[in-house]
Design goal:
By secondary structure, the chain is α+β, with helices and mostly antiparallel strands. The chain contains five helices and eleven strands, in the order ββααβββαβαβββαββ. The termini are far apart.
């Protein structure tokens, strides 16, 4: 058990009583539940491109890693999961996308996969699970946390920014999926200068130009028809 508390379903009366949940580490006994939840999430997505699905072998591999998979259970039902990945020096290490020194690559951990049941969104479950995993990473000797997120996925992007990760790159990953590459240095947090450039998240060339000029994305604000990213250069 990592923590417990109360959450609500989001598709019922606001007067509904809160339901108890437990957040805990998972193992291979949870494999079928994770596959089922993945399918539910994909089915309810308006834009399937923002979510990358994984095979049963992927889940099984990570469930064998100690503390790699966290699940949130409500009334004995898996309603959310978060998975860490340890890429080492393989070609899929996101540290390569942001030009980390080669010696730092073994110290990279990915916030690799997250899913929240549509009925339980709005309970900050992504933030709760990622906060728990970041504490584990910090206590395990790793210095760098990376992840990727779609520019179309505002809720997930907002959650990840709130954990202190910043946008370091924007590129196509896994052949055709456009993704922000995000990073947090656990030993040396990033601080920014006063000159901030705001850019609409739909302006992909403009954001890539800023990133190539040494700007990093660190904040999100709402627009009437979407959202914008705040960019600045690190001090």
């Amino acid at each position: 058990m990592i923590e417990c508390g109360n959450i609500k379903r989001n598709k019922v009366s606001p007067m509904q009583a809160e339901l108890g949940y437990e957040m805990r580490f998972m193992d291979e006994s949870n494999l079928d539940e994770m596959m089922d939840l993945q399918e539910i999430v994909i089915y309810h997505l308006a834009d399937k491109e923002i979510f990358r699905s994984h095979s049963v072998d992927y889940f099984r591999e990570h469930l064998h890693m100690e503390k790699s998979a966290i699940g949130v259970f409500c009334q004995d039902e898996l309603v959310a999961y978060n998975i860490l990945s340890f890429p080492g020096e393989c070609n899929d290490n996101f540290g390569l996308d942001i030009n980390l020194p080669k010696d730092d690559l073994p110290n990279v951990v990915h916030l690799a996969t997250i899913a929240v049941h549509p009925d339980f969104r709005g309970n900050s479950l992504q933030s709760k699970m990622q906060s728990a995993h970041l504490k584990i990473i910090a206590n395990s000797g790793y210095n760098h946390v990376c992840c990727m997120v779609s520019p179309k996925n505002r809720p997930s992007l907002q959650n990840i920014l709130s954990q202190g990760l910043i946008i370091k790159a924007l590129k196509f990953k896994f052949q055709w999926r456009l993704r922000y590459i995000m990073h947090k240095n656990l030993l040396n947090p990033c601080f920014f200068g006063p000159d901030v450039v705001r850019m609409d998240s739909k302006d992909i060339p403009g954001q890539i130009n800023l990133l190539n000029r040494g700007f990093h994305g660190f904040h999100l604000s709402e627009l009437s028809d979407g959202f914008e990213i705040h960019f600045a250069k690190p001090t």
